[in-house]
Design a protein that fits this description.
Order of helices and strands: HHHHHHHHEEEEHEHEHHHH
CATH class of the largest domain: Alpha Beta
Number of domains: 2
Shape: globular
Number of helices: 14
Structural class: alpha/beta
CATH superfamily of the largest domain: Ribonuclease H-like superfamily/Ribonuclease H
Largest sheet: 6 strands, mixed
Oligomer: single chain
Helix content: 40-55%
CATH topology of the largest domain: Nucleotidyltransferase, domain 5
Distance between the termini: 39 Å
Length: 325
């Protein structure tokens, strides 16, 4: 399909619109500068691909949950993905799967995902789009393969099983701290699935947080030693939603149940923490691990939650403030 023919379409597909929006908001020059000190200079062997080209290919792999070979084939097949990569097939070809694999390992070994995540949050703060003083915490289970049909004939040793309700899950947990005012994710950590949510709270709170919201899984957090023994956190107002069984008022009482009303107000704020999880699991399609080990998966989640913050910024119509902040 020619460029003129392609421009005559009745509407722009959602994938192409998504790529256009992300292309416009991402600070490409700064992100390539973050990677440059770790990137091979090309003094020996085959000249390396441009950093921005490899970064764009890697981001599309994350956004569309594709394998190394899958993203290579998808770019050859998709006009919008080829345009996002900025390739002209008359002059160059798509980087092969092995080149992308080595680039991904370079990012993982040098914690580039965390640096990108921190850069997004710094820009949100500078633009006045992220507030301070309050955090919402929550955790979600990410399933991992339970099969032992692999070379080691064993499950991933860093993944464990846990029970939620009446169902058992095998995998890991992602714990997130979300700004209570805006819903942007400011901190994430990764643990095995059998680690209780309450154990990661002190890693998710910011130094200047004065209030924390959480569901009933965080009841009693103020009694933990890492909270009581830290002068930064011992004065935090922990607003935790109670369990339904803790509301003792009988049905015959006709007055206002102030405990339930207060919990309802807490829940109306706490629910903001669910939105980034929805974007990561449903829109970006990362509901199951694709790598072995917590480190590799956490690196990918840094990229996913950085992308979720950008997507929320776009949907709020605040791209101009973000880019100029």
């Amino acid at each position: 399909m020619s460029q003129n023919e392609y421009a005559n379409r009745k509407r722009i597909p959602k994938r192409e619109l998504f790529l256009q929006e992300m292309d416009a908001i991402i600070p490409w020059a700064h992100w390539t500068d973050i990677i440059r000190p770790f990137y091979p200079e090309g003094k020996r062997g085959r000249p390396p691909k441009e950093i921005e080209c490899m970064l764009r290919m890697y981001l599309m792999q994350v956004w569309f949950s594709l394998s190394d070979e899958g993203i290579e084939d998808a770019i050859y097949d998709s006009y919008s993905m080829k345009n996002f990569l900025g390739l002209d097939f008359r002059k160059d070809q798509v980087p092969d799967a092995t080149t992308l694999l080595k680039f991904r390992h370079l990012l993982e070994d040098n914690n580039i995902g965390e640096k990108i995540f921190e850069d997004i949050n710094a820009r949100l703060l500078d633009a006045g789009l992220m507030m301070r003083g309050g955090t919402i915490v929550d955790a979600t289970i990410i399933a991992a393969p339970s099969s032992t049909k692999n070379a080691e004939h064993a499950r991933d040793p860093e993944m464990h099983q846990t029970r939620k309700g009446n169902q058992w899950h095998h995998g890991m947990k992602i714990h997130s701290g979300v700004d209570a005012g805006t819903g942007y994710v400011h901190t994430i950590t990764a643990t095995a699935a059998n680690v209780h949510d309450i154990c990661e709270v002190h890693h998710l709170l910011r130094e200047d947080d004065g209030v924390m919201y959480g569901d009933s899984g965080y009841l009693g957090v103020e009694k933990r030693e890492e909270i009581r023994g830290d002068e930064r956190f011992c004065g935090v107002d922990f607003r935790i939603v109670k369990r339904p069984s803790q509301h003792r008022i009988t049905e015959t009482y006709r007055g206002i149940d102030y405990d339930r009303l207060e919990d309802s107000r807490k829940s109306s704020i706490r629910c903001k923490v669910e939105h980034p999880f929805l974007i990561v699991k449903k829109q970006l399609g990362y509901a199951k691990t694709v790598y072995r080990g917590l480190k590799k998966n956490l690196h990918r989640f840094y990229i996913l939650f950085a992308s979720a913050n950008l997507l929320m910024c776009i949907r709020a119509g605040r791209q101009e403030e973000f880019c100029c902040g």
